[in-house]
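Section 5: illustrative case.
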């Protein structure tokens, strides 16, 4: 395994963490095995006492293919270690559940993916963890909510689906002042343009289903951060509760990293074209894109991140009926609930990803019946803009 600390990002994405077998293969090997063998009973006993180097005992605990993926993602993020999970939500669950106990206090931004809210409000609260939700854009709200006994702060650096941007460094500084850990779901910021660890995150969580695979094939997630946390309580929780990624999915993700930065760059280019092209459209109440000057937190977004991301949101005039009419008129875009795919995808959050929220909660988060999330793929930007404009012509 090479030392990649001095390599550029593009080189790390192709080579970091590589482990070659005795056969000297060029492409990363897939070790599709659930277990490992030992030369003697004494060797087995010793390995269960202490795993050293590239030793493994069971795929739920670790695997050479997973180790390559974890090390490569950690190198790209600037983290000390990583643990690959079965899905993005397995990563969120693992990061939260492994680090808190009954009686602990978590402060979280309220603008979260529905499943994240479920873990906080239904699961953790059920087991005696106190949850305080705040408007993530309001630093005074964070200051008022974070207490001397706050154990953790959790947030989406850019929220799903209305793309609110949080001043991550300011929140991290407040949390660390009272000894609280900072856990960041960073998927909308993208691994390519991540600023989370630099801003003070202790753990960074990704759904690698999104930009990492980015081609609609495999589920996956990863927790990245300080070694003592990732290889301590996080690993202990996940290896005993079965949240590990499969070796096959890790192999797919490894091969996807070869092209991830190229794909994300192209998708950000397209998102900018679409945001600019739709900004003044008469059938829309608004276009929401962190990289567009109309975004209410544009200055913060530009200060924190080099690009505005691969996703934008629009609000179609006329609510659900006209939004559905618009969605059904699209020819290139795919209606789905995923995002960050090589195929461009549109989602109606109020009736899909965030439908379990009460209407008043959705309204509080700005998820109106007219909101449509647009994930930019790798198609021609001009074709995509023309498709959106044509579909908007059908809106009353």
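Designed sequence:
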């Amino acid at each position: 395994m090479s030392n990649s600390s001095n390599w550029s990002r593009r080189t790390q994405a192709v080579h970091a963490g590589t482990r070659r077998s005795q056969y000297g293969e060029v492409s990363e090997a897939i070790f599709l095995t659930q277990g490992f063998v030992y030369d003697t009973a004494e060797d087995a006993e010793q390995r269960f006492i202490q795993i050293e180097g590239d030793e493994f005992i069971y795929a739920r605990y670790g695997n050479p293919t997973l180790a390559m993926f974890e090390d490569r993602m950690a190198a790209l993020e600037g983290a000390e270690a990583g643990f690959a999970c079965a899905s993005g939500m397995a990563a969120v669950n693992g990061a939260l559940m492994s680090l808190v106990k009954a009686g602990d206090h978590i402060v979280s931004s309220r603008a979260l993916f529905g499943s994240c809210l479920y873990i906080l409000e239904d699961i953790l609260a059920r087991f005696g963890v106190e949850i305080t939700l705040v408007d993530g854009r309001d630093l005074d709200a964070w200051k008022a909510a974070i207490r001397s006994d706050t154990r953790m702060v959790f947030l989406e650096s850019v929220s799903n689906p209305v793309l609110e941007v949080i001043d991550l460094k300011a929140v991290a500084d407040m949390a660390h002042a009272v000894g609280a850990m900072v856990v960041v779901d960073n998927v909308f910021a993208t691994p390519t343009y991540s600023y989370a660890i630099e801003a003070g995150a202790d753990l960074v969580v990704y759904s690698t289903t999104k930009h990492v695979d980015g081609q609609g094939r495999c589920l996956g997630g990863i927790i990245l951060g300080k070694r003592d946390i990732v290889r301590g309580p996080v690993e202990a929780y996940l290896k005993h509760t079965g949240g590990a990624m499969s070796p096959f999915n890790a192999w797919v993700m490894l091969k996807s990293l070869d092209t991830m930065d190229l794909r994300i760059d192209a998708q950000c280019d397209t998102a900018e074209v679409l945001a600019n092209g739709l900004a003044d459209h008469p059938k829309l109440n608004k276009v929401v894109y962190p990289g567009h000057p109309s975004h209410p937190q544009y200055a913060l977004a530009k200060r924190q991140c080099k690009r505005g991301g691969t996703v934008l949101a629009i609000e179609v005039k006329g609510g659900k009926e006209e939004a559905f009419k618009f969605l059904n008129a699209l020819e290139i875009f795919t209606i789905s609930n995923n995002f960050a795919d090589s195929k461009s995808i549109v989602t109606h959050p109020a009736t899909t990803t965030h439908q379990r929220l009460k209407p008043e909660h959705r309204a509080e988060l700005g998820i109106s019946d007219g909101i449509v999330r647009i994930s930019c793929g790798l198609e021609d930007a001009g074709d995509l803009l023309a498709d959106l404009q044509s579909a908007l012509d059908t809106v009353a």
